[in-house]
Amino acid sequence: MLVAVPLLLVTLLAIVEFALVMSKLQQVALASRAGAGLAAQQSSLDVVAVKTQVDRELAVGGISAGSCEVLLQHNVQEVTPVVMSSGAGCTCQSPSTPALPSSSLVPAGCVRVTVCVQLSALTPDLLSTLGVSLGSSFVNNSTTLPHEAGS
Fold it and tell me: pLDDT per position in the chain (151 positions), as tens?
């Protein structure tokens, strides 16, 4: 019986933390879509404006710490995709697969916004008291949309 109580407590904390993270990941995905939507409408791509939009969406979703970095990848008027970073405090890598659609498929080009958030900004680190900390981990979400400005 004495062994079952701590095991039950660890399991319960893990389930609660997992549920909180999954809930907040939906907000990160929404912020990524909002940032990509803004970038797709811009005639002059501005990663600072995209990060501002992403952080606004995260704040509305209860993630007041905001994103630690936003990457804007595009092939608008470019043969090779260009990656623009917000230059914030974490190392976030833009996904290389799938590749941005080529100009033969999407003549105006595409934009991809990747939002990176520190996991500790999404949920309290409930398992850290038991020696398992997720605080130094990062989550990211990417959204790719066709560029529509000037169309």
Answer: 778 888 888 888 889 888 988 989 999 999 999 999 999 998 888 889 999 999 999 999 888 888 888 988 888 887 677 888 887 677 777 787 788 887 777 878 889 999 998 888 888 877 777 777 777 788 889 999 998 866 5
Tell whether 151 is covered by a domain. Answer: no
φ and ψ at residue 113, rounded to 5 degrees: -110, 125
Give the closest residue to 35 by CA, choosing from 145, 149, 151, 150.
Answer: 145
* Within a domain: 65: yes
Number of domains in the chain: 1
C-alpha distances (whole Å) from 6 to each of 10, 39, 126, 128 are 6, 49, 14, 15
User: Where in the chain does DSSP place strands (E)?
Assistant: 69-74, 82-85, 110-118, 138-146
Structural domain boundaries, residue 135: 4-146
